[in-house]
# Entry
Amino acid sequence: MTTTTDDTQHDSHADDHHEHHIPYGIKRWLYTTNHKDIGTLYLWFAFIMFLTGGAMAMVIRAELFQPGLQIVEPHFFNQMTTVHGLIMVFGAVMPAFTGLANWLIPMMIGAPDMALPRMNNWSFWILPFAFLILLSSLFLEGGGPAFGWTFYAPLSTTYSADSTALFVFAVHIMGASSIMGAINVIVTIFNMRAPGMTWMKMPLFVWTWLITAFLLIAVMPVLAGAVTMVLTDKFFGTSFFDAAGGGDPVMFQHIFWFFGHPEVYIMILPAFGIISQIIPTFARKPLFGYASMVYATASIALLSFIVWAHHMFTTGMPVAAELFFMFATMLISVPTGVKVFNWVATMWRGSMTFEVPMLFAIAFIVLFTIGGLSGLMLAIVPVDFQYHDTYFVVAHFHYVLVTGAIFSIMAAVYYWLPKWTGKMFHIGLAKWHFWCSLVSVNVLFFPMHFVGLAGMPRRIPDYALQFADFNKWISIGGFAFGLSQLIFLVLLVKACKKQGDPVSAQVWEGAEGLEWEIPSPAPYHTFETPPVVK
Amino acid sequence: MLSALMTAPVFAESKDQIEQYQLNMTKGATDISAGVYDMHMLMFVICVLIGAGVFIAMFISMYFHRKSRGAKPANFHENVKVEIAWTVIPFVILIFMAVPAMNLLIDMEDASEPDVSILVTGSQWKWHYKYMDNDVEYFSKLATQADQISGKLPKGKNYLLEVDRPLVIPTGQKVRFLITSDDVIHSWWVPDFGFKQDANPGFINDAWTKVNDPGVYRGQCAELCGKDHGFMPIVVIAKEPAEYAEWISEQEAVQQQAKAEEQRLLAMNMTMEEAMDQGENVYNANCAACHMPNGEGLPGVFPALKGSQIAVADQPKHIDILINGVTGSAMQSYAKQLTMSEIAAVVTYERNAWGNDTGDLVQAKDINSAMNGQ
# Structure
């Protein structure tokens, strides 16, 4: 994948011309339609939400540091677990991936910008309002949402506080934002690829995001439907989820998880793409099995629509349904396994170096695999009856979401940050960030497997004494992981102030792809004349 | 916070008897739970082997194929045979997991031909057990004192895992649980029995167990069910069938006697002092979780009783709420949970405590007539 160099030359002239017209001040960010600016906005927003949701996790871990109720009341504890989940899923992980898509997809496929730049601005700028609404509900009488991020009816309908209306509105806005972002990604990839950038030449990050965008369009409306039914059940006397009126509370779970399971893959497929970009660079060897990676991603996406009820094995489904969802779920481990094997084969007989993005990528593969394997255990219905709704599940999904999705986002930020700023980030701080995060995240989440197996349920503010010692360690790990992220904050502030050594266009020795052929920092406008991909 | 720090040494002392650092799932008390444990271990071993294989390959590569060791990159990037192999082999491994899992599941889901059937009903935040073959039913609630939770008293050995009235079942017999809920979704889980089953309002799920040895088995509600989800334990005592038979007939007698006693009390009048004393106890055990010990509730979620129009003025409405609950809210019916004299006492208490000085004294016969629609 190379471009003709005279195109690049031409570009940098055009860019010089445009540099003078970069708007400045608050208006630059409010009115921007530039994919790079919007990408930056998304990424900073996601990071602020990550710290906010993280602060709530600190409250949770402080309360669980020892048995008894010390710091918060159970009702507030439930609000913390709920809003922590909502913020991390909809405020941190998803916007971070959208930010990366904004920055990278046009540069990777040789497009000058996203296809729908004004909608791009709009899809970002409604997000802060969604989260302001959600967070403000915590200060209302009766508190914010306290029914878990999964908002199972009737706890979220008949038995919830009136702030549920705000929760519903906030989720609607988040959903609209995601759908607009997804449409933008699809339209951009379909229409704006540079000449010669055929489907099977697209970088895997672009492929995985394309498939993710289709998942988003398919399931975000389902979520919108679910919250709307909650709204009308609570405020307008409908009985979708109330047996007394002919409804069914379990139907809520079917609808929610029909959204929720593809949502899981929405949060991990772009991560697969990122890792597939980073491993070949630092192994100095092409990605093993590019085509099978694409097919594996597509199969995971398709299978994700027929496994939703594995979240509901204890709801009293018929045996036949339990067996179907068990087999379908187990099947997902095949394409996921193919991906992991391909990454290892890419590393095999490479010439590896271990720069910070590679460290995060390797940690991703190991820890995501652990989370994947515990997922396979959870798929087995008879044992899931024991695992379900315990800390074993909490351990599982934090391994795939924190050391999976979030580690991949950090890997991506370290990998492309020098391209964005033109300066190498502070490597010392980055290594501290990596090693502190790696150790503390395992002290935090690994013992959760044990307390879960020993019988500790999720979402409880207080626990029996036999879980005390492990919980103390989990909390210590949690505080350490939280503090480690402040190192990242310092590093990012330094990077945004453009401190550090200048980097070349390629930045990393083994990096390949269109984004590494434009100058560092990436000019405000790139590929105004499309490059030709051979 | 301060009180928690002060009791920390006491807490450390009482904790010594509790086994810490349990790493694995329990084998449990039934053949099914032992089967679940074996299935869990089979999965665990297979997953560890797969994980170990992947990680060893990775770390060999990371050690030997480093640039700093002078490794030159190879250029291979696909191999159809290898890719087919690592698609097919995992598939075969999955079949080896799926078959025993399927057999175990089919055994677990067969709740037919039970010896004993018990209707288990969850409600915020207690369990109700009704023996379908005998005239016995009762509520089972957390027995841990509030002062232990707040740290004012040292925590006991079974902290948060103790109830006022445990469920009693016979050993060696197939006990079927019919599980449902009166309000939100709960989940009935005793780890030693190897299953958990959701309690869905308006629907009945079934599950069963056959406990081999007598003993006390403890569990908890496993589905987030609101504020006191963490304070809704389950305790089951398994007794030899003969002992169980004795227990159940004794309970039948006791419950019949209690009903007779309730009729007798209808004719009696409590003094204000008696009513306030009994009312305060009933209030703290049943009402304080939501309406708070000071009667101020939790604004926006649970209404205050202190100074409320219903508690200071509308007495018929007050009694009606206790008997029938409030549809579309967390307020449940207490007609089944409390005796008529208890309801009378608690209404009296609520109308006179915290400055609600109405002077109203409600008697059991008033409740009886309200219940009979007079």
